[in-house]
Structures are given as structure tokens and as C-alpha cells.
Design goal:
The chain is α+β, with helices and mostly antiparallel strands. It has five helices and eight strands.
């Protein structure tokens, strides 16, 4: 399976400030995944250990059955699962055929543990998401 393109990862705010070497190392950990239209890529309340970046296609985000967002190329989901391997906080359904690159927590954790700037960027991103969720 192919590694994630660097240009795609650079569009993800979580990875935007990574140094090129870290980004290249990270890209090799991603695996290409495709999902057919209608497929539930992640289901709210179910376990999940993967983080995904969308290269092509669109998906809908729902929480408790309510549509919250539409995702497309360059968008990502599952960053919380990178940290806690817990239940998904939303359902992601492919609206069209979806091509993504996925990363598991056990592949991401060593990179975070060895690089404080990566850890800090992850904390900033999660804090921003929490703040946004609290204002809904």
C-alpha cells in the first residue's frame, strides 16, 4: 500500500508545521484506504484506533443522528482515536467513493513521544476542537 503524499499531510493543521524529515517519516506510516459510497468509515460509540486524511471524495459527519459537517479532500477525522483508542465521537459516512490515508495510534505514538513539538501541536488541535464543541 502507498504512503500518504506529503502535500496532503501538509494541508492537515495537525501536521502543517512538521519539519520535512518528521513529515516524511510520518507519511510512511500511513496506509491507503478506499471506501465505497454509503460505507460507514467510523461509527459513533464504536471502538476506533485510526486517524484518516481524505485525499478524494466526500463524507458526512453525524453526531447522535444529526448532520454536523461535510468532509472533503484535505479534511481529516479520528485524531482523538490517535490518543485514547476509545469509542468514536461521530459517525463518518462516505457520500461518494472515498480515498483516504489511515494511521493507527500504535504507529503515531512513538513519533509523538520522541518529538515535543508534535505533541504540543496535537494538544493545540485537540483543545481547539474541544472549545468548538463546547460552543455548539
Amino acid at each position: 500500500m502507498a504512503e500518504a503524499p506529503l502535500e496532503l499531510l501538509q494541508r492537515v493543521p495537525l501536521f502543517a508545521e512538521f519539519e520535512r524529515g518528521d513529515l516524511e517519516r510520518l507519511s510512511r506510516s500511513f496506509k491507503e484506504r478506499t471506501f465505497e459510497a454509503g460505507h460507514k468509515v467510523a461509527e459513533e460509540g464504536r471502538g476506533g484506533a485510526g486517524f484518516f486524511v481524505i485525499e478524494s471524495g466526500e463524507a458526512t459527519v453525524t453526531v447522535r443522528g444529526e448532520e454536523r459537517a461535510t468532509l472533503g479532500p484535505g479534511d481529516y477525522f479520528g485524531e482523538i482515536a490517535l490518543i485514547d483508542d476509545g469509542a468514536r465521537s461521530a459517525t463518518i459516512t462516505a457520500d461518494s467513493d472515498l480515498r483516504c490515508y489511515g494511521l493507527t495510534s500504535w504507529e503515531f505514538r512513538p513519533l509523538v513521544e520522541s518529538n515535543a513539538s508534535i505533541a504540543w501541536k496535537l494538544l493545540e488541535t485537540l483543545a481547539k476542537r474541544l472549545r468548538e464543541a463546547q460552543h455548539r
